[in-house]
Write a structure and sequence with these properties.
The chain is an alpha+beta fold. It contains eight helices and four strands.
Length: about 190
């Protein structure tokens, strides 16, 4: 005798039982029960949480194998540059503190992350871009950085290299909001601009 499966009965099953019932229903050609089970499984999936104060429905940038490989190459180049800069200049945290005596609650930056790699930018952590990697150093209230960014939908040849620093020492300086409009717009809504 066949069991009459109703949405109420199906809702009382565990996920494992739902999966087994779905397989059995498909094997016996019972699409109605299979569809009811799949609907119940889908309904039980938790809603994706908006991370880091991002708008509802925000979808993180896709990261293809090609983009990941490109990111590894960018990180290697940034680390090589950081190593060369550290060989030529004293970019230690102690030196930054010594050069910043008048800055209240000064927090020095390492040129790289704690593991010696390029830092991961907030835009990548939030999923706004395919990748956002950088090296940076801070003296006083000024931050100097070399940033490398690839936006979602851009060709891999469209990687952007950006130099950040005080406008008085950079020619053709543009505000970060112009260079990264989508990123800075969301960060500003979160009070981080």
């Amino acid at each position: 005798m066949a069991i009459l499966w109703t949405p109420e009965k199906i809702s009382q099953l565990s996920i494992e039982e739902l999966k087994r019932l779905t397989e059995n229903a498909k094997a016996k050609g019972n699409e109605e029960v299979s569809n009811l089970c799949q609907s119940e499984i889908q309904a039980r999936k938790p809603e994706p949480k908006a991370s880091n104060g991002l708008p509802d429905g925000f979808i993180k940038a896709a990261r293809s194998a090609i983009a990941k490989n490109l990111e590894r190459n960018v990180v290697d180049l940034l680390v090589q540059l950081a190593n060369r800069l550290n060989e030529k200049f004293d970019l230690s945290r102690e030196k930054a503190r010594a050069l910043s005596p008048d800055t209240k609650r000064f927090i020095p930056h390492r040129l790289t992350d704690a593991k010696g790699s390029a830092k991961v930018g907030g835009a990548q952590k939030s999923g706004l871009v395919v990748f956002d990697r950088y090296i940076s150093y801070r003296i006083g209230d000024q931050i100097y950085a070399l940033l490398v960014l690839l936006r979602e939908g851009d060709e891999v040849s469209s990687v952007q290299y950006q130099v950040a620093g005080p406008a008085d020492i950079l020619s053709n300086a543009r505000p970060i909001s112009e260079l990264r409009p989508r990123v800075s717009g969301i960060l500003c809504k979160r009070g981080e601009c």
